[in-house]
Design goal:
Elements lengths: L1 H19 L12 E7 L6 E3 L1 H8 L5 E7 L6 H8 L21 E4 L3 E5 L2 E10 L9 H14 L2 E4 L7 H20 L6
Helix pairs in contact: 1-2, 1-4, 1-5, 4-5
Keywords: GTP-binding, Nucleotide-binding, Signal
Organism: Musa troglodytarum
Family: Belongs to the TRAFAC class dynamin-like GTPase superfamily. GB1/RHD3 GTPase family.
Length: 190
């Protein structure tokens, strides 16, 4: 499956980048959102964003990621700000117009540190570009969805209204991608 190969390549690049350099920035430099995956100008391809990867590569503990996906203008960024106890002025950018504010996938630069069974874990929050916005293809939406699915430990599908058949199809697609990705590497999949 082409999408799973792209996801594998994405994580290989992140791992190589993580081991290749170290960052000397203080935590205050990372108290904002950073892009980790950005669209090209035509919204047909995705590319890695250096500043987001630098925010991630400085983390030395195991990482768990919470990603929020859903249609555009459905409150994904607002929900993440609530989870982080941040106002809309200090957290992820929240748009008030019809145009989407988030392009690609963004990460909050300061992880939430948790102790899980005696292990310190850094929880990252990922904001994604919404589906079905004007000027984008379904293939582009599927790429964002697939990347968010395999990058996250917890995936929140934020819907502003009732569940539609298309939403169920997208979730089914996410499960297929995750099963194939984790199956290739013999990871335990729950």
């Amino acid at each position: 499956m082409e999408a799973s190969l792209q996801v594998l390549a994405f994580w290989v690049v992140i791992l190589v980048w993580s081991f290749a350099s170290a960052s000397s920035s203080g935590p205050e430099d990372f108290r904002r959102a950073f892009p980790i995956v950005e669209p090209d100008s035509e919204h047909t391809k995705l590319r890695l964003a250096r500043e987001g990867l630098e925010a991630i590569q400085r983390i030395t503990t195991p990482i768990a990621a919470v990603a929020v996906i859903g249609p555009y203008r459905s409150g994904k960024s607002f929900l993440l700000n609530q989870l982080l106890s941040l106002s809309c002025d200090e957290g992820f950018g929240v748009g008030h117009m019809r145009d989407t504010k988030t392009k690609g996938i963004w990460v909050w630069g300061t992880p939430v540190e948790l102790d899980i069974d005696g292990t310190k874990v850094s929880v990252l929050y990922l904001d994604t570009e919404g589906f079905e916005s004007v000027g984008k293809s379904n293939v582009y939406d599927d790429r964002i969805f697939a990347l968010a699915t395999v990058m996250s430990s917890v995936l929140i599908y934020n819907l502003p209204e009732t569940i539609r058949e298309a939403d169920i199809s997208r979730l089914s697609f996410a499960v297929e991608i995750a099963e194939e990705f984790y199956g290739r590497f013999n990871f335990e999949f729950c």
